[in-house]
Amino acid sequence: MTHIFPAPTLQNLSASFAPISLKQMEAVALLNRVDTKFILNTAQLLHALAALQPDYWMLSINGQRQNRYRTLYFDTPVFDLYHDHVNGRAERYKVRSREYLDSRLAFLEVKHKTRKDRTIKDRIPTPAQVTSFTPETSAWLEGIAPLSGGALRPVLWNTFTRLTLVSKHGAERLTLDVNLAFHANGEIARLDGFAIAEVKTTSAHADSPFLAHMRGEHIHSRGFSKYSIGVAMLYPQVKKNPLKAKLLWLEREGREVQVASGKW
User: Exposure pattern of 158-179 as b/e (b: 16+ CB <10 Å)?
Assistant: First the structure.
């Protein structure tokens, strides 16, 4: 008798990983870290998950492996933080309010990319998603970054679904983001058919089964900022020449990059 096995899906591959809880994952928060990013198509994502199951736990929140995130990014009226990124400024910042929809947690966060190519993240819990700065949140922001809450405004919404893996062998976390969508000024941009993989380690030389798998598959790291890509897709007035090659690559590889008017 010939046995026909179902094709692997994100759902059944996710279920094959041993679970880890939010509380257990606190031991590898990695708020000061080195980030390495990759853009994977669906086939590459599924192949990686099938290969990596022995080496990682997967975050499970109330039995849910695919967790939903909603983010609101802030910038100045002339997009100073965006332009710092696309111009390759050595010291740069992102300011965002993030809601973890499945755990019902919200944080105001600042990510600082240092000239030594490290990422430092500071955050404070908030009762709900922050959409404007108060004197209290402005004071917190000004205490950790050369930024003023009064100079920032909300400019971009972003949603995605995240799978979070934690290495069984060392201080490493791997996030896999799918179903990316952006919203601003009544328009929605979607990046279907892609996963953004981000490896977070204590150093650039840390061992990583995922990085070893990428090398074996000849998949090279590729910088990707959700904020910068979303702004470039939805704000025609910003400088985007440094991102043009990446935007064209996404269109060519995915053929499912969509920008349309609609409600969030």
Answer: bbbbbbbbbbeeebbbbbbbbe
Nearest 5°: CA angle at 127, between 225 and 153?
45
- Give the 3-state secondary structure of residue 40: strand
CATH topology classification for 17-261: Hypothetical Protein Pfu-838710-001 (2.40.320)
Calpha distance 73→85 (Å, rounded): 14
Per-domain residue ranges for the chain? Answer: 17-261
CA-nearest of 260, 258, 232, 228 to 37 is 228
Tokens of 206: 């840390």
Alpha-carbon span 58 to 61, nearest angstrom:
10
pLDDT averages per 10-residue partition of the chain, 264 residues: 61 94 77 83 95 95 92 98 93 96 93 89 95 96 96 97 93 93 93 91 80 95 92 94 87 63 58
Cβ burial of 127 (10 Å; 0-12, 13-18, 19+) is: exposed
Q: Is the pTM of this model over 0.85?
A: yes
Cα atoms found within 13 Å of the Cα of residue 36, Cβ hemisphere only: 20
Alpha carbons 8 and 28: distance in angstroms, whole number: 29
Closest CA to 14 of 69, 66, 68, 67: 66
Asked if 115 and 90 touch (Cβ cutoff 8 Å), the reply is: yes
